[in-house]
């Protein structure tokens, strides 16, 4: 599914990428749908597609979109919670064939947020030496996916919280249609507005929160969406449930 918010192909002043034409449009008044689709990764804004927001709609949508980064399902705190109680080794330990690890997800997300809400809009994080510089990826494409020996779990979590506050200030201080340039995107496709970046980061964070859910459950069986609302049935016989699904799958073997 593609989400192009308030696209007007007849009056848009900028050239329109042909792929944008006739894409489905979700009215900005359907705020609950915007939140749901974006947070769950069911919608995205295509590169090159115009997105326009009225001043009235922007006054409502802007705080609501930013709200999802810190209060709802695609939530920084819920992602950080997946490291609760983990020793340094367990937080760093790779748990997939491509080396995915819980602390690496934190480091990845904080570098994504600081990039999109910082240099993209001409803003600089106060301590850039704590971040992964763009040139580091030339030597190690996975540079933001693991903690170095001189980095710690607590240190990266603290950095992520500071990055979150920095990103929130960008969202609060700029308008939804504030222009930006993503320096690491392909030339000709680097121009963005703040609204598009907010949706993109919510989508990215929601995906990585899902990764963290699975990695933590594999480690010690800890599950749940939020501290106050796990969204998982209480007192369920999970071994019996797994056995049931295994038996069902084996019928197709």
Short description:
The protein is mainly alpha-helical and 253 residues long.
What does this structure look like?
The chain has 253 residues and is mostly helical. Helices cover 46% and strands 4% of the residues. The radius of gyration is 20 Å and the shape is globular.
Topology:
Layout: E1 4-5, E2 25-26, H1 31-39, H2 55-70, H3 76-81, H4 88-92, H5 102-117, H6 136-139, H7 153-173, E3 179-181, E4 191-193, H8 194-220, H9 238-250
Parallel strand pairs: 1-2
Antiparallel strand pairs: 3-4
List keywords for this structure.
single chain, 253 residues, mainly alpha, two-stranded parallel ribbon, 46% helix, globular
SSE topology string: EEHHHHHHHEEHH
What is the radius of gyration? 20 Å
Strand order of the largest sheet: 1-2
| Low-confidence parts | 1-61
Mean pLDDT: 79
- Principal-axes shape call: globular
| Content-based structural category | mainly alpha
Q: Helix coverage percent of residues? A: 40-55%
List the quaternary state of the chains: single chain
Count all strands and give the number: 4
Q: Could you tell me the strand content as a percent range? A: under 5%
Q: Report on the biggest sheet.
A: 2 strands, parallel
The total count of helices amounts to 9
> End-to-end span in angstroms?
33 Å
